[in-house]
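From the shared-data thread, chain only:
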Amino acid sequence: MKTILKVSAVALFSVLIFSCGTQRGINGSRTGRLDIRDTTSVKDSTEYELIVFDPAFDYWFESHSYSRNQYSNDYLQSMNNQYAREWNRRYSIGDRRIESNIDYYATIKYDFEFNYKLFLYFKYFEETNRIKLLNIGGRP
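Structure, as tokens:
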């Protein structure tokens, strides 16, 4: 009987550890809608990749033809910083629509393509969830 209890306890503990480990995504965040991964390029500078776990975003991104020239990288970086802070605030209070924390830092200079895609992801999220993350006006 003691052997069965020990085996059961070990099995339960193993399942618990495994289930906790599988909920982690890249950079240790919970598997959710997006994540940021840093990669080293050939030039020894750090580049960042946006990973979106929502398969519908790719179609939405390609079908919404916003002019890339209407935004500067500084504008996008500023907006993404505000969006990421609000996103992380909502994640920390348990908003069920926000499934992961975003590691976006205002001190890092992300390139235009990264900032543009992240900015449009926030727009996509607002549109598909019918909410506004930020209470500011302006074009999408």
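Strands lie at 34-40, 46-52.
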